[in-house]
Design brief:
mainly alpha; two-stranded antiparallel sheet; globular
């Protein structure tokens, strides 16, 4: 697909559109926190693993003169032709169908409220290898792109590092109206490190291209960094194109693909739980009721299903970058995030907008991927703060899970015919699962952590629970829980007995005894001294008397 630049621009436009749509859904009907929904590296890892078993045809137009994918003896296909388009749409339809089926599992988990039960057995020693191996397993993708021109890739990394680390506290005057002055100072470098890295290096590549300092012959090293490669896509792409469900054809389903994407769904669910708790803390929102988290997981499953229907080639999850932006700007407004969602949907409908991004030189993308994947690995390692690193038990589990998560998939890549159970179906499923680094690492870490004896404090469960439940719940805080109520329709659930038993309904979690237990006061004092009625506690309205 990479040789069909118009198709890539259409896929980018679809991704923008669905990301904006999912952001609107999650902020309106989901957890109702200022969280942007975005693509996940977990789904990308699984898609790459799934496609490794699919052979690619020969293509007649390859800018750098070589193919990194497996090539068969099939006839040469012209990029942009109907036959070539059918070749890559077959693959993306398989990814679509796999995400569609796997997202139903996430919807079921959100509806039934079983996520809390699952998380009882998932601790930092399971999360650490899972998230760390997501980044480590993708190093080949970033390296292959960066190798087209290492100096350009390194420049991207340097600009990103300067902006996000060395200059993060530098505030730049920005024009704007306020009560005291006509300008304000913002830390623009820490707000836009990715944009600075990409557009700064892109400008350098444009200068090098204009001055002919980059090779003009496709066979020479560094040619791929030129900015005039594929510039025709800006002319060929349509001005206006609205993405729609099933635009690549009817999604197909394979067992290997479903199991592969199911792993990504589980990982993103765990990641989303951490993100929503972190966002509530940074945004100074009241502590999250469990049913609101269930509702968020339910809506995230719905969003993944929409991504499968539209065909983004990826699922959606909460973007961790949202928390850092909220912390810097001190803006945690739902309206701001919802406006961004609408803008993403509008940009996704402009074909030229997506086409512009396809002209970014590959080494720039490679350098940025190397940085982002490194950050993902760092986020995974950050969970080590909860465990006892002086414990040999913990060091053993961590080392073994990381080692097996790297060695097993790499060995299977070189020995793809090694698994022979006598069943083609089982062979395909096992090959996909055992070729996934985060799956192998997560399983090894999960089994060892739950079978090797150790105290909750040693395993990090005590500190992990305290981190998730940070914040106190008093009656004033309960009054603020209205922010989690669904707009317009929540009033219809106030007197519904059925709603109180639905795991993802707002009315199902806060009876009097829960309030009394959390606030460390007796039920009698709640009923008599503070005069809070049971109906009031359920509805969390302004009638709470303090």
């Amino acid at each position: 697909m990479s040789e069909d630049k118009v198709a890539v621009s259409e896929l980018l436009g679809t991704t923008f559109f669905v990301t904006g749509l999912c952001t609107l859904i999650q902020t309106t009907l989901g957890v109702r926190l200022p969280l942007v929904q975005g693509c996940s590296a977990s789904f990308l890892t699984q898609a790459i693993t799934l496609m490794r078993s699919r052979k690619c045809p020969n293509v007649d137009s390859i800018p750098d003169g070589n193919m990194t994918s497996n090539v068969t003896s099939s006839p040469i296909l012209h990029s942009g032709s109907d036959a070539y388009r059918e070749t890559w749409t077959l693959r993306i339809r398989e990814v679509q169908g796999s995400i569609l089926v796997a997202s139903m599992f996430e919807i079921m988990i959100g509806c039934t409220g079983t996520l809390g039960f699952i998380l009882r057995f998932v601790g930092p020693l399971t999360i650490t290898p899972t998230l760390t191996l997501i980044g480590l397993s993708l190093f080949r993708s970033g390296t292959n792109m960066a190798s087209g021109q290492w100096w350009i890739a390194i420049t991207t990394v340097v600009l990103f590092t300067l902006s996000s680390q060395y200059l993060r506290n530098v505030e730049v005057p920005v024009p704007g109206l306020s009560k005291l002055s006509l300008s304000r100072r913002l830390p623009l470098f820490s707000l836009f490190p990715i944009l600075i890295g990409i557009f700064g290096t892109w400008a350098i590549c444009a200068i090098l291209t204009a001055t002919s300092l980059l090779p003009e012959h496709p066979e020479k090293w560094g040619y791929i960094a030129r900015t005039d490669i594929g510039i025709d896509v800006l002319k060929d792409a349509s001005w206006f194109r609205v993405p729609y469900p099933g635009q690549w054809g009817i999604p197909t389903i394979s067992a290997a693909g479903v199991f592969s994407m199911l792993i990504a769904v589980i990982v993103t669910m765990i990641d989303a739980v951490g993100n929503v708790y972190a966002c509530a803390t940074i945004a100074e929102a009241p502590p999250l009721p469990g049913n609101v988290v269930n509702r968020g997981i339910f809506m995230q499953g719905v969003c993944c299903m929409l991504a499968g229907l539209w065909g983004t080639g990826n699922g959606t999850t909460t973007a961790s970058d949202s928390m850092s932006i909220i912390g810097i700007t001190k803006v945690a407004s739902l309206r701001v995030i919802q406006t961004c969602g609408v803008m993403l949907m509008i940009f996704g409908c402009f074909g030229k907008f997506g086409a512009l991004f396809t002209t970014i030189p590959t080494p720039i993308i490679g350098g940025m991927l190397m940085t982002i994947f490194g950050i993902i690995s760092g986020v995974g390692l950050s969970f080590l703060q909860f465990i006892d690193l002086n414990s040999f038990r913990n060091m053993f589990i961590l080392g073994v899970s990381l080692f097996f998560g790297i060695s097993m998939p790499n060995w299977l890549m070189e020995n793809q015919e090694a698994i022979k159970t006598g069943s083609d179906f089982l062979d395909q499923v096992l090959n996909i699962l055992l070729s996934t680094s985060m799956f192998v690492g997560a399983v090894v870490g999960f089994v060892l952590d739950n079978t090797i004896p150790g105290t909750d404090s040693e395993r990090g469960l005590t500190a992990w629970k305290e981190h998730k439940l940070a914040g106190t719940m008093d009656l004033r805080t309960m009054k603020r829980l209205k922010i989690y109520e669904l707009p317009l329709i929540n009033k219809y659930f106030h007197n519904s007995r059925i709603a109180k038993h639905i795991p993802f309904c707002f009315m199902s979690l806060w009876p009097i005894d829960k309030v009394a237990k959390t606030c460390d006061i007796s039920c009698e004092s709640v009923n008599s001294e503070i005069m809070v009625s049971k109906e009031t506690v359920y509805s969390i309205t302004d009638s709470v008397k303090l």
